[in-house]
Amino acid sequence: MGIFSSIKNAIFGKKEEKAAPTAPVTPAASTQPAAISEVDVAARLDAMDGSDKLNWRTSIVDLMKLIGVDSSFANRKELAGELGDTNYSGSAEENIWLHKKTMQELAKNGGKVPAEFLD
After folding, report:
1. Residue 111 gets which letter from DSSP?
2. Which of 13-22, 50-59, 81-90, 100-109 shows the lowest per-residue confidence on average (mean pLDDT)?
3. CB 8 within 8 A of CB 109
4. Where in the numbering of this chain does the DUF3597 domain appear (predicted)?
5. What CA–CA distance (Å, rounded) separates 17 from 1?
6. What is the pLDDT averaged over residues 15-36?
7. DSSP characters for 7-76?
8. For residue 86, which of 21, 24, 72, 115 sits 20 to 30 Å off, Cα-Cα?
9. The predicted structure's pLDDT at residue 118
């Protein structure tokens, strides 16, 4: 499993985890709203222990620390490679790019992320 998969699973939960089955309801009698498939990334991260002490909204290192993924240079370099930067050196500019690209990939994979990460 790659670093991005680890990040995605830490925020979204693993696919194997499914909600408990509910009593069957006939479609014509159903008054329940449709299931929400999009994960609110910011809300999930804000709800995690330590989110008030880490700047996950701008720091890839803090984001990784918050969700329990090793934020070492080697792991950031591997993540950068997964997301398209094969020449990652760990500069501040690259870390900003890596954070934004991670958020954009989360959005592509079903996450609802703040608009500031999508431009």
Report:
1. E
2. 13-22
3. yes
4. 3-114
5. 17
6. 44
7. HHHHHH--TT--PPP-----GGG--SPPPP--EEHHHHHHTSTTTTTS-TTT-HHHHHHHHT----HHHH
8. 115
9. 82
pTM over 0.85: no
The domain segmentation of the chain, as residue ranges, is: 3-12+35-108
Chain CA centroid to CA 38, Å? 12
Tokens of 99: 């954070």
CA dihedral 79, 118, 108, 54 (to 10 degrees): 50
**Residues forming beta bridges with residue 39, ordered by sequence position:** 111
Q: Are 76 and 88 in contact (CB under 8 A)?
A: yes
Token pair of 98 as six digits: 């890596």
